[in-house]
Structure formats: structure tokens, C-alpha cells
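Input record, target 12 of the design panel.
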């Protein structure tokens, strides 16, 4: 019972205050991503609420925050635009059909993500190499920083222009003040979240001082929204009557659903991994996948834009002391309260305060140690780190992570491919022994085959695998091929110290191999190697 309580809240005061801080930072983020996707700001806010409440209660990582995200918003745009175009061409035109398509797509996204959790695919995040993780963190910090620069623009006659003159200096001053408070306050006390106090102080200065600055309210109106105030999310019954509009467009829906599911899972699991490191604890990727999928289904049914984990808000939460599930629940509930009751007050919060908070997140997120270690780590790892950072900024984090994992896997395969060795000796009876050392897999079979001189070898050959492991089907085929080559030349060949799995597969391919595979082994090392292989399987 005590463990369950600590999972729910490590410290009620810290969780509540940090949750409130996160909720304030969530508002402009959710609105901005709704604009990116081309939907009403309330759809983004509803999405952030439903994602936040479900994952906070049932997700695999207490303290991690989920909501509407830019990575998923970018994927939605094309489908929403296409749906709106189709809606206007129908015999009975349907307004905002693209949004309805989004709700239907989110149902499929949820099913895919839940399936990934049930199939326990979340564990594969543990296979992501450290250089990829560092590159992801650095790239995401840069993306967050660049996204905040857009808030230094104002709407002039429908066009976005950079702030200048006194407006720019006022904005910079308030951002700097926010950052200064967040830097200095923890040195005095850590009992209250520095980000929350900074937002309150800067908001009080602008409101009481009558300073005209961009606020949450003006940001929403400049983007085309009517304001923050709304009602409770409602059940979207109409989507079940719109499936006929998808005829001829299911390929677009399915491809978008799979891409959204993949992007959401990658970003969520990477964020989970990062929060694990920050809190020195371990979450469950599979449980998070199921919770994310359930939240996206809820979004589809009740009119939210969907989403996934948010690294910026998660870091704000953890750094503010939010370590339990209560912090995420508080953030979601506070966000809903802002929508229902607190719109007039929240709309007065200056954007500069929230920008300052996010700038401090950038500073805290970026792995500054990467500069120090770049010349101390292997060159391939340094290249992967830089490449993942660049691709995250250039494309998106899902592509960057996949590219980084592929690069790291290729580097690993190449290194292991060059490790295959063959020590040669002649026994007293004239048998030539090849003692294989190193992994035998698809990358090393060419080097493995080059070790043998079948034509010039004596009539008796022994190939000893005690210091080698046949790792895949390519390796098994290489063993079978070299044995058949000797047999075709009329020579006697023995295969020793093969793993049980390798023996089974070789015998399935050719039952005659039973006469050349040595099964009576008296070397004690063999049993150690076999046991180790069994445990790995």
C-alpha cells in the first residue's frame, strides 16, 4: 500500500505546485500545435487534457507529462487538408471533414499503440544507443529553442513580423527576468517551483504595471482562435456516420495512423528513457504504450487532437519536484479548469514568462557534456551524435532516432564483421584444425570463408567453434557451405563445439551432417559457452 501511495504522489505539495506550473506552460504549447495542425485551439487543449489525465493515471512513468505535440501535429496536416477538400466536393458538403477524419484516425492510432504495448515492443527503447539518446536530447533542445523564437514576432496586417524597438526590449527584459528568477530562487529555497513563482511575478508586473505585451489571449486571437474559454469535451457521435466518406482514401488514413502511432511511441519512449535517467528510476515502456493508445482512442471519441509525451513539460515537472502521478493529474485537471473557469485570468499571462520558462528547459535539456566528450569518444559515435541532432532539427525526432539506430547498428555490424579470426594448427594424425574466434553472422561470413583453403588442405579437417558464436541464419549457411565444399572434394570434415541451436538447424538442412558434427565434447569450456547461449535465447 505504501508503494502504491508513493507511486501516486512522492510529495503532495510538490506534485500539486509542479502540476499547476506545467498546466500554465501547456496552454500556449497546445494552442500553437493546434494551429500547426490546422484545427481549433480548443481541440488542441482538449487533446492535451485527455492525453494528460489518462497517461498520468495509467501510464508507465509517474511524473511524465503527455499532451498535444508538434511532432504529431505536423503529420496530421496533410490528411486534415485533404479531408477538408473532399468535404466540399460531397453531394452534401461536410464542413471540417478533415477534423472528423482525424478523430477516426486517432481510433486506429490507439489500436496500433495498444497492440505495441501488448506485444511488449516498448522494451526495444532500451536498445537505443547512448550517442543516439544524446543526439536526440540536443536536437530536441534546439527545436524547442527555435520554436520559442516564433513568439518574438507580432501580427501586423495578417503578417508575422519580428518585434523591434521598445516592444522587443520589453519582451527580452521579461524573458530575462523569468530566467533569472528560475536560476536564483532554487539557491534560496526549493520548497516551491521556481517556474511557477517566475510566471506569477512576471504576470503581476505586466498586469499591475499596465505593460502592453503579448499574452496567452492575444496569442490565441492572433492565430485565428476566439479565446481560451470552452465547455467539457463532447462525444463525437457524428464520426460513425462518416466512414463512407473514406472510400478511396483509406490508404491515406491508414498510412497517417501508422505514422502517428510510430512518431508518438518513439517520442514517448525516448522521453520516458530521459526521465528515467533524471529520476534514477525505471518506467514501463509497454504500459506507457497501452496508456498512450487508450488516450488517443479517447481523443478520437471526445474531440481532441491526440498527442504523446512532451519532453519540455516533463522536464519542467521533474525539475519542479513533480515525481508522482498526482503531478500529471493536477496538470490535466488544472488545464481543464483553465478552459472552463479561468480563461480571463490565464489569457492575461504574458507570453514572455512562458518563453523564459522554456528557455530554461532548453538549457537544462541540452547535453552540454557532449561538447566535452566529442573528442574522447569513438569517431563513429561522435558522427551519430551530431547526425541525430541535425536530423532532429532538419526533419523530426522519429526520423532522427531511426536513422541514428540504423547508423549505430551498421557501425556495430562492421566492427564485429572484422573480428572473425581463424587460428590454424596440425594435429599429430595430420588433421588440420581451424579454431574460429569471433562472431559469425551476416557481416562476417565473407571474411570467414576467406580463412579456408579447401583445395590445398589435407584430407582431414576439423573446424572448432568453441570461441565463436554462430549468430544468425547467414552464419549457419556459411558453416553448411564450407562443410559441403570439403565434402564435395572427398575430404573428411568435423564440426566441433557448435551450439545446440546451430546443430539443430544444420541437421534440418542436411541430415547427413549428423556424421560430421562432433557431439561428444569433453572440453569444460563448451558447457559454459552453451549455458551462456541458452540464457541469451
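The sequence produced for target 12 reads:
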Amino acid at each position: 500500500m505504501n508503494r502504491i501511495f508513493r507511486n501516486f504522489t512522492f510529495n503532495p505539495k510538490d506534485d500539486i505546485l509542479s502540476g499547476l506550473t506545467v498546466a500554465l506552460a501547456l496552454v500556449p504549447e497546445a494552442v500553437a500545435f493546434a494551429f500547426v495542425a490546422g484545427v481549433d485551439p480548443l481541440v488542441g487543449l482538449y487533446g492535451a487534457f485527455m492525453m494528460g489525465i489518462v497517461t498520468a493515471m495509467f501510464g508507465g512513468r509517474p511524473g511524465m507529462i503527455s499532451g498535444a505535440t508538434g511532432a504529431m501535429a505536423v503529420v496530421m496536416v496533410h490528411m486534415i487538408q485533404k479531408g477538408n477538400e473532399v468535404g466540399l466536393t460531397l453531394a452534401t458538403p461536410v464542413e471540417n471533414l478533415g477534423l472528423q477524419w482525424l478523430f477516426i484516425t486517432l481510433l486506429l492510432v490507439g489500436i496500433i499503440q495498444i497492440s505495441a504495448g501488448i506485444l511488449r515492443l516498448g522494451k526495444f527503447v532500451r536498445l537505443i544507443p547512448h550517442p543516439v539518446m544524446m543526439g536526440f536530447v540536443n536536437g530536441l533542445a534546439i527545436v524547442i529553442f527555435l520554436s520559442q523564437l516564433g513568439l518574438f514576432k507580432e501580427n501586423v496586417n495578417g503578417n508575422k513580423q519580428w518585434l523591434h524597438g521598445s516592444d522587443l526590449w520589453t519582451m527580452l527584459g521579461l524573458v530575462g527576468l523569468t530566467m533569472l528568477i528560475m536560476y536564483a530562487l532554487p539557491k534560496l529555497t526549493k520548497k516551491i517551483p521556481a517556474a511557477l513563482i517566475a510566471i506569477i511575478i512576471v504576470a503581476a508586473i505586466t498586469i499591475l504595471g499596465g505593460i502592453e505585451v503579448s499574452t496567452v489571449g492575444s496569442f490565441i486571437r492572433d492565430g485565428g482562435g476566439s479565446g481560451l474559454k470552452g465547455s467539457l469535451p463532447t462525444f463525437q457521435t457524428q464520426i460513425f456516420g462518416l466512414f463512407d466518406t473514406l472510400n478511396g482514401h483509406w490508404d491515406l488514413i491508414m498510412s497517417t495512423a501508422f505514422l502517428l502511432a510510430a512518431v508518438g511511441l518513439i517520442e514517448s519512449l525516448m522521453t520516458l528513457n530521459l526521465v528515467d535517467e533524471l529520476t534514477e528510476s525505471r518506467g514501463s515502456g509497454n504500459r506507457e504504450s497501452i496508456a498512450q493508445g487508450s488516450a488517443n482512442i479517447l481523443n478520437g471519441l471526445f474531440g481532441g487532437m491526440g498527442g504523446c509525451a512532451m519532453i519540455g513539460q516533463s522536464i519542467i515537472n521533474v525539475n519542479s519536484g513533480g515525481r508522482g502521478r498526482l503531478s500529471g493529474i493536477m496538470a490535466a485537471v488544472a488545464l481543464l479548469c483553465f478552459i472552463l473557469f479561468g480563461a480571463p485570468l490565464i489569457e492575461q499571462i504574458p507570453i514572455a514568462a512562458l518563453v523564459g520558462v522554456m528557455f530554461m528547459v532548453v538549457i537544462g535539456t541540452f547535453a552540454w557534456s557532449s561538447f566535452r566528450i566529442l573528442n574522447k569518444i569513438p569517431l563513429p559515435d561522435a558522427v551519430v551524435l551530431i547526425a541525430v541532432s541535425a536530423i532532429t532539427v532538419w526533419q523530426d525526432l522519429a526520423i532522427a532516432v531511426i536513422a541514428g539506430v540504423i547508423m549505430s547498428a551498421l557501425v556495430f555490424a562492421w566492427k564485429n564483421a572484422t573480428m572473425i579470426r581463424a587460428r590454424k594448427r596440425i594435429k599429430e594424425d595430420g588433421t588440420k584444425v581451424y579454431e574460429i574466434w569471433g562472431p559469425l553472422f551476416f557481416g562476417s561470413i565473407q571474411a570467414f570463408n576467406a580463412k579456408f583453403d579447401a583445395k590445398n588442405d589435407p584430407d582431414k579437417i576439423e573446424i572448432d567453434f568453441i570461441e565463436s558464436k554462430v549468430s544468425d541464419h547467414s552464419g549457419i549457411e556459411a558453416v553448411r557451405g564450407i562443410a559441403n565444399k570439403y565434402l564435395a572434394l572427398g575430404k573428411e570434415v568435423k564440426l566441433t563445439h557448435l551450439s545446440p541451436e546451430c546443430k539443430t538447424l544444420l541437421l534440418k538442412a542436411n541430415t547427413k551432417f549428423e556424421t560430421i558434427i562432433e557431439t561428444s565434447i569433453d572440453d569444460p569450456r563448451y558447457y559454459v559457452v552453451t549455458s551462456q547461449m541458452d540464457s541469451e535465447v
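The chain has a mean pLDDT of 86.
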